[in-house]
């Protein structure tokens, strides 16, 4: 995973809430067997509308998406995160995220930050008035900075460390392989097994 | 017998979910999240290819092929068992087959009697049992919570993690109870109940919580009804939904291919009987609902929380106090092509979809068949009936349900996710309106530009007959 410490870029102000993962990337785009190449699917249906935010030239190079609450609810598709990354987003800011989406984002180096609605509103207004204005998302300091404004955010200490180090969960877990083996040796014998197959 | 983890816990009162959680912690405490052991890992073609790739790159194996099983469902056609016309869909299915072969994972492919929607297949094989941890790269994994298991959807990175380690790091959840007192009135189903719950909580109300559904109305539900309720836990943002196992649960599992047998059965049942929330256990939050006040419930908008009684009308954005809800409602009405104030019963539909992991089991087909028997699907409606698995289809045929649907003019299909999500050939066309027994009415979910009303199987069948949203009582 890519390390994430801090990122500075311009903001795309997506004034929508309840953006589920079907909106982020419709199911028809989930057929690839690779982890990349999903940028075409990002907000695919909305992008057909020429008035849609990401079709405006001033937001084309935005790398921070600021959106309404309940972003990424619904389907578990990690493709939603891959699509945002492939398109060029490095961070997403919203008052609240769907749990599975949030977990997926942090495993792929896409920083998702929860800020209160008032802060999101300010960031929207600012990006609408000054699309080129830069915003910094600083994971080290747990701060979002825009102009003379600074908002702190909460972030789980373990997840923050993992993201800043760019560590892979599997390798971390395998450090406790002995504990896993110990647990397995104590499992109840009646617990079901898929093999050999009984049909 | 050596002591098992669940016997070594202390005496402080615990919730059902805490008991199952505690029995599966490989590692707890310290700065890292708990490490949970996973009892059953279900795979399908869409969320697994990149996970297998990750294993290959790192030179890792599947740690426990005997706790892993795959089937094909999201991409599969439902008009035939052999020809996947779309090359990218075919490639995804072929990739799953090749991965299962290479890594030694059991797979039920198209044409196999145990192929079908992954959340129908697990319980059908008796692989889903009480007190387990079940995961799958699919948000509707919460279905399996109906057995008193902690079951939740995961992303592809987590699929790879479970394949490699049979565990998952998980932050400790919060615990919530949804208590449904009294009995559901005649004609009100599990689907109506869960749609009502989501309309109260909104799509984010359950965030971070494992929810235990309990109370008389929940106890009175069949196992399949309980699966419908738990299935849609994710639609109000819950981490998982679960229901304490009881005699109905044991009776449902007993005799299935992977059910414990002999002494194992006795040991398993003895454990299952401990799986209930202790007197005095504390939930972080509780919602109480009076079942007697419920009636058939349907959605009008573009998220599952935007629902209303079938007897009600399409709301106006001004009806919502919260400014965000107001804006969302306005957008939803526009997408859905609906006028505020329209009685729900006057909304005509083009398509009725009966199926999915929410309502594609045998009881759902029976309920709908009973309504539609001797009647005809309206000429303006295309009704699609898609059994949740090949086995459900077989059973329906044995009971003559296929004839009921075919005689009524419905389209009787093969098993799969079908029109629940637009990634196989079964899709709405732009502007088409559907009454659907599935779980999501998101924009474009059932096909680009398609408009979805979520309904119960009984309402779906009555709607197919009348051509507009209706309940069996209207026929």
UniProtKB/TrEMBL annotation, chain A:
UniProt GO cellular component terms: 3-isopropylmalate dehydratase complex
Record EC number: 4.2.1.33
Stretches that traverse the bilayer: none
Catalysed reactions, as listed in the record: (2R,3S)-3-isopropylmalate = (2S)-2-isopropylmalate
Keywords on record: Amino-acid biosynthesis, Branched-chain amino acid biosynthesis, Leucine biosynthesis, Lyase
Taxonomic superkingdom: Bacteria
Pathway this chain belongs to: Amino-acid biosynthesis; L-leucine biosynthesis; L-leucine from 3-methyl-2-oxobutanoate: step 2/4
Keyword check for Amino-acid biosynthesis: yes
Domain Aconitase A/isopropylmalate dehydratase small subunit swivel: 1-117
Enzyme class: lyase
Pfam families referenced in this protein's UniProt entry, alphabetically: Aconitase_C
A single GO molecular function term of this UniProt record: 3-isopropylmalate dehydratase activity
One example of a Gene Ontology biological process annotation: L-leucine biosynthetic process
HAMAP family linked to this entry: LeuD_type1
Subunit-level organization: Heterodimer of LeuC and LeuD.
Family, per entry: Belongs to the LeuD family. LeuD type 1 subfamily.
PANTHER family: 3-ISOPROPYLMALATE DEHYDRATASE SMALL SUBUNIT, 3-ISOPROPYLMALATE DEHYDRATASE SMALL SUBUNIT 2-RELATED-RELATED
Its biological purpose: Catalyzes the isomerization between 2-isopropylmalate and 3-isopropylmalate, via the formation of 2-isopropylmaleate.
Record protein name field: 3-isopropylmalate dehydratase small subunit
Gene name tied to this protein: leuD
TrEMBL record, chain B:
Family note: Belongs to the aconitase/IPM isomerase family. LeuC type 1 subfamily.
Compositional bias annotation for Polar residues: 430-441
Enzyme class: lyase
Segments forming domain Aconitase/3-isopropylmalate dehydratase large subunit alpha/beta/alpha: 18-467
The protein's Enzyme Commission number: 4.2.1.33
Required co-factors: [4Fe-4S] cluster
Protein name as catalogued: 3-isopropylmalate dehydratase large subunit
Gene Ontology MF terms: 3-isopropylmalate dehydratase activity; 4 iron, 4 sulfur cluster binding; metal ion binding
UniProt keyword list: 4Fe-4S, Amino-acid biosynthesis, Branched-chain amino acid biosynthesis, Iron, Iron-sulfur, Leucine biosynthesis, Lyase, Metal-binding
This protein's pathway: Amino-acid biosynthesis; L-leucine biosynthesis; L-leucine from 3-methyl-2-oxobutanoate: step 2/4
Organism lineage string: Bacteria, Bacillati, Actinomycetota, Actinomycetes, Glycomycetales
Record: residues binding [4Fe-4S] cluster: 357, 417, 420
